[in-house]
Each structure stands twice: as C-alpha cells, then as structure tokens.
Amino acid sequence: MAELTYDTLMDDGNYLGSERARMENQVILNELERKKKARNIAVPTDDNRVRARLREIGEPITLFGERPADRRDRLIYVLSQIKHARGDDGMQVDESSDESEDEEEESEFYTPGSLELLEARRKIAEYSLPRAQKRVAQQLIDSKMELGRIVDIRKKVFGEVKKFAILGSQIGDERPISQVRFSPNNEILVTGSCTLTSSDRVGGVAWHPQATLNQSPDSVNLRITSVRDYVASASYDTSWRLWDVATSQELLLQEGHSREVYSIEFQNDGALVASGGLDAIGRVWDLRTGRTAMVLDGHVQGIYSVAFSPNGYQIATGAGDDTIRIWDMRSLKSLYTIPGHTSNISDVRFFQANDLFFKKPQTPEPTSPDVNGDTGANESAVSSRSDTPKLDKPEAGSPTFTPEEEWSYRSGLFFASGGYDGYVKLWSADDWQLLRTLTTDSGKVMSVDISSNGHMIAAGTYNRNYQLYSDLE
C-alpha cells in the first residue's frame, strides 16, 4: 500500500468520482438545506403552546429528560421534516407564535485566517495522514487476530494491572499538586502546582514527545501536536488557542464554549484536538479544517479531563458529575457511562505503549555438550525422569500469541482515573470494568498518569504529595 500523503490525497479522484460518494454528498447537502430552511420556521416560544402544537401534529408532547428548549428544537425538526416530505417551498407559520419578536436572519460568517495558520494546517495534514494510515493498517491486522489470542492477551495484561501496589510517597511542593506527567523515557516525573502566584495555578503540564529521548534539554518541552511545532492552551476566557512554538506566535483563537475551557488534549495522529469546558460540553476540533468534528454533550457538570484512546476514535471524559463517559467518533455518540468515583473526576489517562520499551524475550541458548557428548550429569538425570515434558512439544497452557502481538494490542487496553474521593482506579478499555482500586493518603486526587512502559502509575494529591505505584514485585 502506497503511503498516504497530502499531495496524493489531493490528486486522488477515485473517491469523489464514485457513485457512493456522490450519494453521500447529496445526503449531506440535503440535510444542510433542511437545517437552513428550519431556521426560518417560526414556532411558539411559550412551552405550553409548543406542547399543544406537538399534540396537533401527532407527536409526543414530551420525552424523558426533555427540557423546554429541547422540546422547541424537536418541534422545529418535526416541522422541517414535514415540509421536506411535502416538498413545500414555504411552511405555514403558526398563527399563535410571537410575531412581535423580530428575528434576525441567521447567516454564517467567517473570520479570515492568517497565512501562518494556513501553513500550519497544511503541515498538520501532511504529518497526520501517514500516521493515521499506519494506525488503521495496524487496527486491520488486530481485527483479524483469533479470539483465543485476544482472550489470552487480556488475561495476561489485566493480571499484571491487578498487581499494582503503592511504591512510595513524597512531598512534591508547598501547595496541592495539580498535575503529574511521566517523561517519555519514564525516568523523570514533572509536577505542576499552585506556586506561581497566589491566584493562579498550573492547570496542565506535559512533555514534548521527544523530550528525554533525542530532544535537546535546551528546547521547549511542552505538550504539542504530533507535528511537534505547535502547542495548545486552554483558558478561562471560554476559548483555547494554538501557538507556534518556534515563533511564539498565536495562530488561532478558537471559541465554542459558553464557560471556561478546563482541559485540552491532542489525538496521537496530530489532526484532532478535544477540549472540555466547565459548561459540561466537550468538542472535538479538526485542526486541518478548523471545523467541529464532534460535540460531547452528555455530562451535567463541568468536564475536568479529556483523553484520546490510542485507537484514535474513542475519547474518555471525566467530569464533576462523578462519571466517566466513553465517546465513539465513528458513531458520534456516547458508548458507555461509568459511575467511576463518588466525587469529582479530576483526571483520566489511557495507557499508551511506546515501542522503544518493547523487549522481546530471549530464547534460552542450548547447552553445549562436553567432550563425551553429554550435556551434564545433572541434566541427564533430570531428562531421564518420566514426568519431564519434551521440548519439541508446546506445554499445556502456553500462550497462543507472540510478544509483538501482545505489545501491539496492549496499548490502550486499560486506563486510569483519579477522583476527589481519594482513589485511583484502573479500568479495562474494552468492557469498561473496574480492574483495580488504589488508595492514596489524601482526600483528593488531582491528577494521574501511566508510564509508557506500563509498569508505573503516578498520582498527584491535594495534600502536596505525589505517589508512585508499580506492578513489579
């Protein structure tokens, strides 16, 4: 398979020329046209009149958990569907609506972007396309893996996860530790706290992907996209911004939340970024186009943490409603809701394996015979026993997978969450079940992280401590 690049994507006419693509595009255009016409439909603003109108057209007057604003939107949607089915150019306006209100015609508007932003979008697209192609190709290989191998890998990985235990605790600062992140080589732990000023605090810290590996110590070691030239920052002014690390220039000021933006996270491919706000709404943005790819609407309290799964299409969000929600970008909906903690969920982190730490088990070397052709008296005595298994046959219960398959499938197979109930919890990322609960010496866990070799977990707590957990006995 040829490598997918920005240039080959632009020159590829097969997709746009297919009948299926034309049909899909036509469906999208029809839906956009329907929404455009729906904005011009006048409906009552009074909830009682909305209920009466729904009853007239044979629709339920209310649905479970439906708010008045949602009910009015549903009425608009139903009326637009009726209009589209009849093929009417105009819709009869409800006489009982508030005609005295002058509604301005809604129209889309665009803010001109800079040439630097255009170049940044192109570089992000050029870098993310081959990474996405490689990820999808690996997922295709994993999808063909036998069920028995998958079961064996899950048993082995989850068995190791259940061995995590406290390794040590250390005072890390004079104020509560709000963030902990392992370095890419897993030898350094960076912490962030509230010691900058009396009113500000460090809300997010992370490493450059190549820091402590081949990155110069004098270079910027912030969390940036996979293109490695840009950094994003979330702000309490209801926006997030994209910056050029080399020039310190602001490339993009992105709005889209009604309250403070609390967390922001990049997808591994580098093309998408997810933001979580205190308005209980999360959004997934496509950096290549600037458009919203998905709205994460389901929490009832502010979102404190957002994390992309290594598979690229699943997202976990932790919020103040004590739940973790799993979202699927393929179906554009929430897959599962985990009642994770008994208080605010402050952080969620997937295990993301780094191939640099994959160690293939060494096969034992055969014992060389002595001058008489024997391998030793002791070995001969052991080999002569009737209960000794033969080496040319696989042992019963031996793993049915290779170390390479295990390491590839292990990435993203579990994740960790920290909450204000004082616990760190480890969850499986396929059936979303609890694997292990780790206690801390504090009432609030502010942050959590998993090392890229899968053997260490760090937690930052409100009582100024950071704690380490290990699965190595």
TrEMBL record:
Q: Which UniProt keywords apply?
A: Repeat, WD repeat
Output compositional bias ranges, type Polar residues. 375-386
Q: Where is the Pre-mRNA processing factor 4 (PRP4)-like domain?
A: 45-97
Checking Pfam families in the record gives: PRP4 (PF08799), WD40 (PF00400)
Asked if the keyword Iron belongs to this entry, the reply reads: no
GO terms for biological process? mRNA splicing, via spliceosome
UniProt lists compositionally biased (Acidic residues) regions at: 91-108
- What stretches pass through the bilayer? none
Record's keyword annotation contains Repeat? yes
Q: Which domain of life is it from?
A: Eukaryota
Q: Specify where the region named Disordered lies, as residue ranges.
A: 87-111, 361-404
The GO terms this record gives for MF are: U4 snRNA binding; U6 snRNA binding
The ranges of the WD repeats are 254-295, 296-337
Assigned GO CC terms: U4/U6 x U5 tri-snRNP complex
Q: Per its UniProt record, what InterPro entries does this chain match? A: PRP4-like, PRP4-like_sf, WD40/YVTN_repeat-like_dom_sf, WD40_PAC1, WD40_repeat_CS, WD40_repeat_dom_sf, WD40_rpt
Q: What is this protein called?
A: U4 U6 snRNP-specific spliceosomal protein
